[in-house]
């Protein structure tokens, strides 16, 4: 299957998807690719016997105009360095892919791994107060000290979003902005300088083709991507109603952890957070340490502590013979899954799991996306 053909077919399906979301996704998951769906579009009931008439009619309609539009979009992407990501692409956010309403195709420009080991989103009001700004500044600064390898996602909007992106950049985190329009434009335009920095230290992501306006409904659709690609949602400030609360609600629906910073009773932009905490819709946090403990990410903090205390990778004075064997294998063949490590080291998987955990605690090894184990270089 040609990658270019798969991308074009995914773009075509994404346009159909606006009207037949559940049916298109069911077909995609059943057949395994956009190309396979297009190959069966005239006999789709052989795949899904109870496919609705609108879905059947939509698939059998003339797709020539949609294909021409897809070819134009692909050309634009190629000239601008944009990656179209179909669900078959390894770079597509794996967490998002598991969601029932995941986009069939995404458009991405940047250098961050969208499948990093830790991904969080920070959201809230567009009218962020000095209190909220200070919370974001302290949270991200402290998070860098205890859990430095986190991808921070938000929506590049006014208020909490842009404050989160800018503080992430300032503290050396990669940060991705999810947009409610195509990558030929930027809304709001005054965030262009920040967006340009993000392309080199994170990226910009959207499900929308060029020429798409930043309409209100698109922001709601955008929120599901912010929620779906993350491990956790952190609500900083929110009025009683707002987009941040929508993202928090979607996150809960996806089974993600949701956290909120409390605010003073009676403050307009703390009301949404306080209500969410009161109603058990979010866990209360007041610091990065609270968050890391709640997520069970203490091993990251221990790894940082080990680094700061000067554990040298080339000395490892406190390694057991078995641990030393693992290190030597990773020195020769770094980034291995546990089954390959078991083969290379001759250590049973159940024993190897415990040893790898100990090596993580010592700051020697870390896990990457896809269950890969990496010998930490201390850089």
Characterize this entry briefly.
With 379 residues, the protein is an alpha/beta fold.
Walk me through what this model shows.
The protein is of the alpha/beta class. It has helices at residues 3-17, 21-31, 34-39, 53-60, 64-80, 94-97, 130-146, 160-170, 192-200, 216-228, 243-253, 271-278, 288-295, 298-308, 321-332, 338-345, 349-361, and strands at residues 83-86, 105-110, 119-123, 151-154, 174-178, 202-206, 232-235, 257-260, 283-284, 336-337, 365-368, 372-375. Helix 7 (130-146) runs parallel beside helix 8 (160-170). The longest helix has 17 residues, at 64-80. It has 17 helices and twelve strands. The two termini are 39 Å apart. The strands form two sheets. The protein has a nine-stranded mixed sheet, sandwiched between helices. Strands 10-12-11 form a three-stranded antiparallel sheet. The protein is 48% helix and 13% strand.
């Amino acid at each position: 299957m040609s990658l270019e053909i798969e991308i074009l077919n995914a773009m075509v399906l994404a346009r159909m998807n606006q009207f037949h979301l559940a049916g298109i996704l069911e077909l995609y998951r059943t057949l395994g690719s956009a190309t396979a769906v297009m190959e069966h579009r005239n006999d789709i009931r052989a795949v899904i016997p109870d496919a609705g008439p609108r879905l059947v009619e939509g698939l059998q309609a003339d797709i020539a105009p949609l294909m021409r539009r897809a070819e134009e979009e692909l050309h634009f992407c190629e000239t601008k360095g944009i990656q179209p990501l179909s669900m078959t692409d390894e770079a597509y956010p794996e967490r998002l892919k598991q969601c029932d309403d995941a986009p069939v195709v995404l458009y991405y420009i940047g250098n961050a791994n969208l499948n990093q080991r830790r991904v969080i989103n920070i959201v809230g009001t567009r009218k962020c107060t000095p209190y909220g700004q200070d919370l974001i500044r302290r949270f991200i600064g402290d998070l860098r000290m205890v859990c430095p390898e986190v991808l921070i996602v938000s929506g590049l909007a006014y208020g909490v979003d842009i404050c989160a992106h800018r503080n992430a950049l300032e503290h050396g985190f990669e940060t991705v902005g999810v947009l409610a329009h195509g990558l030929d434009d930027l809304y709001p335009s005054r965030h262009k300088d920040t967006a340009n920095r993000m392309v080199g230290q994170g990226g910009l992501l959207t499900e929308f083709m060029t020429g798409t306006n930043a309409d209100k409904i698109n922001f709601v659709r955008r929120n599901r991507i912010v929620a779906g690609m993350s491990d956790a949602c952190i609500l900083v400030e929110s009025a009683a109603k707002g987009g941040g609360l929508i993202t928090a609600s979607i996150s809960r629906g996806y089974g993600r952890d949701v956290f909120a910073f409390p605010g003073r009773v009676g403050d307009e932009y703390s009301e949404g957070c306080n209500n969410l905490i009161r109603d058990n819709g979010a866990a209360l946090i007041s610091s990065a340490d609270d968050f890391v403990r709640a997520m069970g990410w203490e091993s990251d903090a221990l790894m940082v502590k080990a680094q700061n205390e000067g554990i040298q990778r080339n000395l490892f004075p406190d390694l057991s013979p078995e641990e030393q064997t693992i290190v030597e294998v990773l020195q020769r063949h770094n980034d291995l899954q546990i089954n390959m490590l078991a083969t290379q080291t001759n250590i049973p998987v159940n024993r190897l799991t415990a040893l790898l955990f100990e090596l993580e605690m010592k700051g020697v090894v870390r896990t990457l996306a896809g269950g890969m184990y990496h010998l930490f270089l201390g850089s």
